[in-house]
Amino acid sequence: MDTAISAKELTKWFGEGDLRTYAVKEVSFDAYFGEILFVVGPSGSGKTTLLSMISGILRPDSGTVNVDHVDIWSLTPDQIAEFRLNKVGFVFQDYHLFPRLTTAENVAIPLILKKKDWNESIRDAEHYLDVVGLKNKAQLAPVKLSGGEQQRVAIARALVAQPDLLIFDEPTASLDGDTGRRIMEFVKNRILNDSRCILIVTHDSRIFEYADRIMRMEDGKTVGIEKRADH
Amino acid sequence: MKGILKIAFKLLVNDKGKYAALLVGITFAVFLMVQMISIFSGILIKSSSTVINLGADMWVMDPAVNNVASSIPLPDYVLDAVRSIEGVNYAVPLYSGAALVKLRNGIFQPVTILGLDDHSLFGRPELIEGEIEDIYAENAFIVVQDAEVRKLGHPTVGTEFELNDHRGVIVGIAKVGASGLFGLPTLYTTYSKAIQYIPSPRFTISYILVEPKSPEAVTHIESEVRRLGYLALTKDEFMEKIANFYKYQTGLGTNILIMTAVSFLVGLSISGQTFYTFILENLEKFGALKAIGAKGRELIYMILFQAAFTALVGYGLGVGLCVLIIVLAKIRVPEYSATVTFTTLAFAFVMVLIIAAISSYIGIRKVLKIEPFDIFRG
Question: Which residues are the signal sequence here (chain A) (predicted)?
Answer without folding.
Answer: none
